[in-house]
Amino acid sequence: MFNEMYRDGEIRPEYRMIADWLEANGPDALNEKRAEAEALFRRVGITFAVYGEGGDPERLIPFDMVPRVFSSTEWQKIEAGSIQRTRALNAFLTDIYTERAIVKEGIVPADLIDGNEAYEPVMEGFRPPGGIFSHICGVDLVRVDEDTSYVLEDNCRTPSGISYVLENREVMARMFPELFRSGIVRPVDHYGDMLADAMRSVAPPNCDGEPTLAILTPGHFNSAYYEHSFLADLMGVELVEGPDLFVENHRLYMRTTKGPQRIDVLYRRIDDSFLDPQVFRKDSMLGVPGIIDAYKAGGVTIVNAPGSGVADDKAIYIYVPEMIRFYLGEEPILPNVPTWRCGKPDELSHVMENLHELVVKEVHGSGGYGMLIGPKSTEQEIEDYRKRIEADPAGFIAQPTLKLSAAPTLGDEGLVPRHVDLRPFVISGQETKLIPGGLTRVALKEGSLVVNSSQGGGVKDTWVLDR
C-alpha cells in the first residue's frame, strides 16, 4: 500500500512542513482542535442527511485535521487529465442527443444509451450553449502509487461536495494560520467567481444587460441544502425554489416584491424528473412548468443540462478513453480502472469465476451502496451477490480490487494510514478549468475502502503546493 507521506521510508518533500507541524502540536492538541472544528461546522450548519435510518438524520461529516498534499507537478497531471476527460464527456453528451456519430462508428453501443434511465428523449436534437451539458463535473480519482491515479467514476449530473472543499480550507486557515504564512499553498477561495464567470459565459444571447444567475434548490429538507445556500451566498446570487419561478414567453422569471425579475442562467440542484412537470413527473412541486421549452427556445440556460446523467453510468464509463480519442484525437492522460461488463457473456464468465478477488458495482449505483468487495466478503455474501448478477447481468460491472493509496490521518493516539480518494470539480464555460484542490474523502475505518460520507467516511483539506 502506497502511503502518500513517504518515499522509501523517508518523508516526501511535499509533506515535510506537515510533519514538522504535527511534531510541534502532538495528537492531543490536534484532537482538541478537531473537536473545536466540528463544533464550528455544526454551528454554521455544515451537515448532510442520511434518510431511512430513523432518528435525527442530520450528521456532520468527520473532518480530519491532517491535510492531503500534492506537489505542483502532481497536480498538473490531475488538472490536465480532468479537463481532458470533461471536454470529452461534454462532446459525448452533445453527440448522443444529436448526430450520434460515436454510435454510428460502432464505439459505444446504442443500447447503453437508449436503455439508460438517465437518457432524456426531450433533449434530442438540442445543442446547449457552448455545447456544454455538464458545466460542473466531478471526476473521482484513486491513487495506487506515486505516479499512477485512476479515474473511478464521473459525476456529470449534480456533483456535490464543493462546500466542504471551501469550508475545510477556511477552518484550517483560521485554526492554523501558521501553515499558510509561507504562501506556498495555492488558494481555492475563487471557486465562486470561477463558477459565476462560467455561468455568465453560457447565458442566452438576448439577456437584458448583465446575465442574472440563480440556484434552484428543492428546499431545506434536501440532504445537500447547506451546499445550495452556501453557494448562493458565495456567488452573491438568489437561492430559489420552484414556486418562486415562472415561465412566460419562453423566458424564466423570479417573483420578487418589486415584480418579476428575469433569470438568465439557472444552476439547478434538483433531479431531472422533478424539473418540469409538463415534461417529466407531472406531480412535481419542486420544478417550474415550461422551463424545458424555455431552455430549448434559448430563453434560459440550465446548469447542468437535463440528460447529463447518461455520462454517470458505470457502463458508459468504460468507453470514456475511446471518447477522448474519438472527439479530441488525444490519448487519455488519466486511465480508467480496468473494468468488465457483466452484460457481455465472456466478461461475465471471468467475473463469476473471480468474485472473491473483484469489486462488483451496480451500473446505476452510487454512494458506495450495492457493492461487493470480494476480498472482504464472506462466502455467503459472495453467493448472494452471485444470484443478483445472474438475475440481471447487464446491471453490473466489475473491477480489480485496487491497493488504494493511504494518507496520514489523525487517530486518537496519533497518525494512522487511511485510504483516500479525490474529487476535483471541473467547471466548463467559455473555458474549462478547476481550482487547485478538490474533495479528499477518507475511509476512517481501518482497512475500509469505502470513503462515502453516508458510510462513515470523512473529509480532509486538500493542498496543492505552488512549487
TrEMBL record:
Residues of the signal peptide: none
Domain called Circularly permuted ATP-grasp type: residue spans: 67-443
Pfam families: CP_ATPgrasp_2
Database matches in InterPro entries: ATP-dep_Glu-Cys_Ligase-2, CP_ATPgrasp_2, UCP005522
PANTHER family found in the cross-reference section: BLR5612 PROTEIN (PTHR34595), SLL1039 PROTEIN (PTHR34595:SF7)
Name under which the protein is recorded: Circularly permuted type 2 ATP-grasp protein
Organism, as annotated: Pontivivens ytuae
Organism ancestry: Bacteria, Pseudomonadati, Pseudomonadota, Alphaproteobacteria, Rhodobacterales
